[in-house]
Specification:
The protein is an alpha/beta fold. It is 47% helix and 9% strand.
Length: 230
Amino acid sequence: MDTVHTLETPDTGAEVRDPWLPDRLLRTERDALVPLLRRTPEDAYGLRTACPGWTARDVLAHCAAALIRIVEGRLEEGVFLPAANAADVAERGDWPLARIVDELERGLTEAGPVIAAGDGTLDAVALGEWIHAGDVRAAFGEPGAYAGDSLPLALPLLRTASRKRETPRLVAHLGGHEGPLVLGNEMPGRPAARFRGDAPTLIRLYSGRPLVATRYELEGAAEAELLIYR
């Protein structure tokens, strides 16, 4: 029997932050992703991902570097901008693959408490890490690339990110989930947009991932308006 998840329907006011939600997401993803990475043949890491110019190995190097920066407090200005990300990936270009996976595992384990102790600014990093894990799974041809046990933890962070990125209000009716998920912000004179489809497709839509072979209905908003990564 398919699992039915219950989604909280938030009001239009400020949300109460759960500081440990990113940690739960990262640790759940660690337990799912790291075993996959350790059993995947090394040749697969040269496959291209949805991230332009990046292979699966590059994506994992970026993810590991970002988390370790959080763990070690190396968060200078511009640290997560494209130039810095590219430099982090290049720094790991001659590392053995096992070293990258080890660093990623450490980051997925240790970054959560640091994020929890902060003011919420880094919460979105946990969501980004989870989406990148989906990018790698998609490149490997794994089923359910943007789904799995982590999905119910990722959706509340998507809701928060959609509000911080000032996307328009959208009410998402998701297959397999009880109750709608309300994302984005109310805009004067504009009714809420509507989405009907599955949750992994919603993740793809908001993160700018390919929507080939998906099926969904979107009314009242354009796809480009919903992007949380620009």
